[in-house]
Amino acid sequence: MKRRIITAWILLGSAFSYSEGYSQNITQQQQAFQGIIGRTLADSKESWTKPVKAPAGSPNVLWILLDDVGFGATSTLGGVINTPTFDSLAHQGLTYTNFHTTAICAPTRSALLTGRNSHSVHMGGFAHVAMSAGFPGYDGRIPSDKGTVAEILRENGYNTFAVGKYGLTPDEDATDAGPFDRWPTGKGFDHFFGFLGSATDQYKPDLVEDNAHVQPDGRHLNEQITDRAISFIERQQKANSGKPFFLYYAPGATHSPHQVATEWSDLYKGKFDKGWDVFRDEVFKRQKQLGIIPANAVLPARNSNIKAWNKLPEAERKLYARFMEIYAGYLSYTDHEVGRVINYLKASKQLENTLVFVIIGDNGASKEGTFSGTIDLPRGATNKLSQQEIIKHNLEASGEIGTPKSIQGNYPLGWAQALNTPFKQWKQDANSEGGTRNPLIVFYPKGIKDKGSIRTQYGHVIDLLPTTLEYTGIKAPEYIRGIKQDSIQGTSLVYSFADAKAASQHRIQHYYIFGARSIYKDGWKAALSYHPDLLDLSNNKEGLPKNYVENVWELYNLNEDFNERIDLAKKNPAKLEELKALFEVQAKKFNLYPYITWDDVYNTRIHKNY
């Protein structure tokens, strides 16, 4: 008979507790001994480790990253959804209208936290087993030589906290057995409270605290993460008043499922009855009035796959308007919860010395709600239903939209295009500004002089880490935990803080998401879409098209045509070939090879469990 042997070590009087963290949390290296060791104490000289302290007056740093919002959703950027917290931060800070993400969540988050392009940090796709691949650009495991902003700031005397969505932990590591080196606490955060995946139910989240899964308390996740963020700061300041902190506040909102209390969604009853076509026109007009877009801009035509609002049956219009009421309430509620953090910092007299960055979305508005919206049907179930069967089901289940039963709640595709006004396309489309352009707000009362102004310099999520380091006076480390660090690839935006007319210093940027791709250089952009007519991914009975053939490259001069209306590929073939060649150089340099497409994900060995 085999005997099971269990070994337990019990350290009486130990100061260690599970909730305080694991050895992965200890990032500061032991300082070298500076004294003298003789044969006797009399011949020796002591040397004591000195605690690392941030420079006096170092600002707190707050990064806020929203999810799946859309450029034209918030009142801050001309939208009709009220976001007074973001409005206030923008009015007292700077709004960057030419800032970019990667077009999808995990690549954006990995690039943001590391200051390096997503494929360079192995996150060209996701950390999910089903959607990762065994190549350096796609295996979903951020290497230790690509340190995060949290690791850098903690080694320079900051406390570091993260709440909300992480999305960068490989599935097979995401149990209570670990390993924990790719959990937030293993990537530089002293404490974490949120979820590790790409999405979660807002009332029954897959909730994690530090290095363990915990039971949610039934309240909306936004409320829970906000409470915990404030608690982290309160406890830290009580223990060490004045020590700077870094807070990464990344709610699951407004990613699906769209779930929110009726007190918020009821604020928008009847507000969207005019439909997505009127919505686009009104937002576009307001964006011009606010100076967010050029006065001579033209709104792109509605996508040919989306029906005109006034051609829809009345029952569908009512259903689709309700989807949008829920989404609007969800976004306003998220703004309210961010406001709780800001108000706490103000009341505790910390806001004046807090550098705040708000990225309104990790990509464009989501196209994953299909043409008719989603409520409670499990992922993939719609493949077995016709469009009319889905509409019939949604009409019957319309009372569940926004409730805890709305486990897949997401608006129809027509609203995705409307929320991305003034751009074309949507989330996942790395070829389009509608997929990649997301506004950035920079707020710092002690340092921002040109309050309430707009910046049009080109920026990308990899720029926030170097911007933070330059503004706080912290140098990028050569080593973290004894591991030599790779170079940071982003460009600091500090040069533009005081100069609205400064020339863009981020001059080249590539994009690639599962086949869709583009390359930007000095205002010019070459782009290649991937299955542009296949929009309703979940209602495609035959699966994604096989025998992928690359579509025709397009060329745009964004300096004159910011929302990509005029394709110059035939008029300027030399510029197009120049940019296509540059894309290949970038692809080889930053781990984009091999090019993995949606076909590969769905129809090959990569798609294991999705």
UniProtKB/TrEMBL annotation:
<feature type="domain" description="Sulfatase N-terminal">
    <location>
        <begin position="59"/>
        <end position="474"/>
    </location>
</feature>
<keyword id="KW-0378">Hydrolase</keyword>
<dbReference type="Pfam" id="PF00884">
    <property type="entry name" value="Sulfatase"/>
</dbReference>
<dbReference type="InterPro" id="IPR024607">
    <property type="entry name" value="Sulfatase_CS"/>
</dbReference>
<comment type="similarity">
    <text>Belongs to the sulfatase family.</text>
</comment>
<dbReference type="InterPro" id="IPR050738">
    <property type="entry name" value="Sulfatase"/>
</dbReference>
<protein>
    <submittedName>
        <fullName>Arylsulfatase</fullName>
    </submittedName>
</protein>
<dbReference type="InterPro" id="IPR000917">
    <property type="entry name" value="Sulfatase_N"/>
</dbReference>
<dbReference type="GO" id="GO:0016787">
    <property type="term" value="F:hydrolase activity"/>
</dbReference>
<keyword id="KW-0479">Metal-binding</keyword>
<dbReference type="GO" id="GO:0046872">
    <property type="term" value="F:metal ion binding"/>
</dbReference>
<dbReference type="InterPro" id="IPR017850">
    <property type="entry name" value="Alkaline_phosphatase_core_sf"/>
</dbReference>
<keyword id="KW-0106">Calcium</keyword>
